[in-house]
Amino acid sequence: MIFKIGTRGSKLALVQSQWVKEKVEAEHPDVKVELVTIKTTGDKMLDTPLSLIGGKGLFVKEIEEALLKKQVDVAVHSIKDVPAELPEGLIISTFPEREDPHDALISTGNQTLEQLPKGARVGTSSLRRSAQLLCMRPDLDLVPLRGNVDTRLKKLEAGEFQAIILAAAGLRRLGLAKRISQIIPSTQILPAIGQGALGLEVRRDNEQIIKLLAFLNNEQTEVTVKAERAFLKRLEGGCQVPIAAYAGLNGEELHLEGLVAELDGTRFIRDEISGKKSRATEIGDSLARRLLDSGADKILARIYGKQS
Q1: For position 147, what pLDDT does the model report?
Q2: Which one of 105, 118, 286, 291 is at 20 to 30 Å from 44 when CA atoms are compared?
Q3: CA-to-CA distance for 43 and 234, rounded, in angstroms?
Q4: Longest dimension (CA), the chain
Q5: Is 81 a catalytic residue?
Q6: Distance (Å, rounded) from C-alpha 25 to C-alpha 29?
């Protein structure tokens, strides 16, 4: 049997897909796995902040199209890139064990966020990070930063920035954990929905592939990510809005924190909720409704109004 994985061509995407390939081949020796590299809209437009490109699914749309056309059997995504609404006929069937969900600071001189001097240039591609950083350190000079991990690190080394912020998970998967100056706690910067988690997307009716991948599923990751994505779905959020959420599991108890922020970090609507893990999607939806009732609806309307 030949099994085709659709993946982006970045080094990180290929490392993640290669990991899935090796796991599948080890579990199913009769299966030959091939990687099919697909260029997405987000990969083609590297000079523009994601928030200005607009739309959802910038890093997944073309791969999902290949999946629907049966050119590939599964798509390996970073869940934080996947919109809350999937195309008709596709599902996330498998959630492998999650890596570190936090953001990481890499700085010259190995400084922490608190130690960075006033006016320090900090590179980040994320409105979510920017809004939370501006709340903590309004004196920093935040500069949009796109490109793959290597590109961003080179810009830091060239002196264009005094610090950059990246997902800790990507750095660990690329063997770059030693470059991290600080793992930023979620009390300071709440992570992106699904950050650190992979999602394996398949055609809903492809029962053979769903069964073949089932051994990779991690229940804790599945439950927590589903709660976070239910939160995102209710807020109809994308990369143009500072939205964050992170769920943790303690036995049967699920705890979820979420926030919506103004772009300039001057106002945050942040709350948390707990409940049984069996109600993960309901918990995510409930927390989002609570934030909307507390004023997040006005923040979202203002941001989307500016972008329309």
Answers
A1: 81
A2: 105
A3: 27
A4: 59
A5: yes
A6: 5
Domain coordinates in residue numbering, the chain: 1-96+197-217, 103-184, 218-308
> Rounded CA gap, 222 and 92, in Å?
10
SS3 131: helix
- Other beta carbons within 10 Å of 233: 17
Query: Is CATH 3.40.190.10 correct for 1-96+197-217?
Result: yes
Q: Rounded distance, CA 84 to CA 67, Å?
A: 18
Distance CA 190, CA 192 (A): 7
Q: Is the pLDDT of residue 306 over 70?
A: no
Write the Ramachandran bin of 258: left for phi over 0, alpha for psi from -120 to 50, otherwise beta: beta
The SS3 call for residue 251 is coil
Q: Which residues, including other chains, have CB under 8 Å from residue 154's CB and lie 6 or more apart?
A: none
Q: What is the CATH number of domain 218-308?
A: 3.30.160.40
DSSP string for residues in 33-61: EEEEE---HHHH--SS-HHHH-SS-TTTH
Which CATH fold topology does 103-184 show? Answer: D-Maltodextrin-Binding Protein; domain 2 (3.40.190)
Please give the Cα distance from 220 to 301 (Å, whole number). 34
Count of all residues that appear for the chain in the document: 308
User: Is pLDDT at 214 greater than 90 in this prediction?
Assistant: yes
d(CA 181, CA 174): 16
Query: What would the DSSP string read from start to end of 138-162?
Result: TTSEEEE--S-HHHHHHHHHTTS-S
pLDDT band, very low/low/confident/very high, at 303 (cuts 50, 70, 90): confident
Distance CA 280, CA 278 (A): 6
Asked if the domains 1-96+197-217 and 103-184 are classified in one and the same CATH topology, the answer is: yes
Annotated catalytic residue, options 30, 73, 81, 205: 81
